[in-house]
Amino acid sequence: MKKIVFIIISCCLSVALFGQQAVTPVEKNGALRVENGQVVNQQGVPPQLRGISFSWSIWAGQKYYNAPVVDWLSTDFKVSIIRVAMAVQPQNGYLQKPVLQTKLVDTLVNEAIKKGIYVLIDWHDHNSHMHLEQSKQFFAEMAQKYSGVPNVIYEIWNEPERVSWDTVKNYAVQLITEIRKYDARNLIIVGSPHWDQDVDVAANNPITGFTNIVYSFHFYASDANHQAGLRAKADRAIQNGLPLFVTEWGVGEANGNGKFLKPENEVWLQWMEKNKLSWANWNITDKAETTAILMPGAPETGGWTSSQLTPAGNYIREALRELNK
Question: What is d(CA 26, CA 32) in angstroms, rounded to the nearest whole number?
Answer without folding.
Answer: 9
